[in-house]
């Protein structure tokens, strides 16, 4: 959903941020908190989805989609 609201360099930043969030989410949930999530669905999709949704609000631009809002 971010592609309709952010510039390309911002999309790369969101991707990198979500990748790091996913990696550290797996690390924290599995290794530190000892939560057994067999497929790591909660960290890969849950944490990354939350971080990505918040990042759209930070990087959103009216120049891309006039129906949105500036971040």
In short:
The chain has 71 residues and is mainly α. It has helices at 8-32, 41-59.
Account of the protein in words:
The radius of gyration is 14 Å and the shape is elongated. The chain contains two helices and no strands. By secondary structure, the protein is mainly α. The model has no long low-confidence stretch (mean pLDDT 89). Helix 1 runs antiparallel to helix 2.
Helix count equals 2
Beta-strand percent range: under 5%
Helix content: 55-70%
Radius of gyration: 14 Å
Number of strands: 0
Which ranges are low-confidence, i.e. pLDDT below 50, for 5 or more consecutive residues?
A: none
Biggest β-sheet strands, sense, barrel: none
Helix and strand succession? HH
Q: Please state the overall shape, judged from the principal axes of the Cα atoms.
A: elongated
Alpha-carbon distance between the termini?
15 Å
Structural class: mainly alpha
Mean pLDDT: 89
Name its key features:
mainly alpha; 71 residues
List the SSEs and their pairings:
Elements: H1 8-32, H2 41-59
Helix pairs in contact: 1-2
